[in-house]
Amino acid sequence: MGFLHPVFSAIRRLFKYDPRFRFAFIAIACLVVFAFLSIFSPYDPRSSYYAPISQPPSLKHIFGTNGRGQDLFWLLTFAMKNSLIFSLEVALLSRIIAIVVGITAGYKRGILDQILVLLCDSFIILPLFPLLVFLKLIMRQMSFSTLAIVLALFGWPWDARLIRSQVLSLRERVFTYSAIFSGRSLLSMIFSDYLPHILPITLATTVNNMLWSLGFEITLSILGLTPLDIPSMGTVTYWAIQQQAMVMGTWWWLAFPIGLLVLLFVALYFLFVSITDYINPKARIISR
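Request: output the structure for the sequence above.
Response:
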């Protein structure tokens, strides 16, 4: 696990010197703790009408209740947990594909590289949103796990090209030729020599992919194309819109989920920008 040392070192430096990263790290940590509270919820997230409907925030119901008689605080802990898990599933699955394709294309080069680059370009130009709607119409019932797999299958091409370009450069370094002539295995060289260079880019693209997948989840949920009985940040917003929260004057139905979403998106954006600046020598703001 020595290849992870540069990542931990970068995180420490970013937290110390970059206020954007520090804000993002603290905000995401708070949201993770908020999601973790779902373990202690006294209510089943799928049950309804266990509390008075449309009650404003109070000591008993911190975020108030919605039109389905659900406590918004506890409901949002489940929603945040499910949305974070969903975005992580998409990001990790697509990172695995991107790393395998990027390293293979960059290291092998030749015809295999051309085929993999053509495959990347083919996935990039596909119109994803209409395809997702079409799949939903065919499958009738698309679970969040299925949606995560589908998004992961479309979320890797840009990042695979980035990794490929990095590996193409590493392939011409002296340490690569030394490793080849010394008889080291390809896997040994990838883990010890290539991954320390690839991981910072992979980490940055992971955060970006989480933003991308969260945007899709929220959009599809608001359109009613995801399982609406499972709480997520998108489905909670869907039910608030369906029950005309703004018309009814029940502002808390939308204010708290949207507030948490804004905090999550801003934190992830700052995290992505700070990491990108750190790994870009021309934009690096952290002194050595």
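Confidence is low (pLDDT under 50) at residues 283-288.
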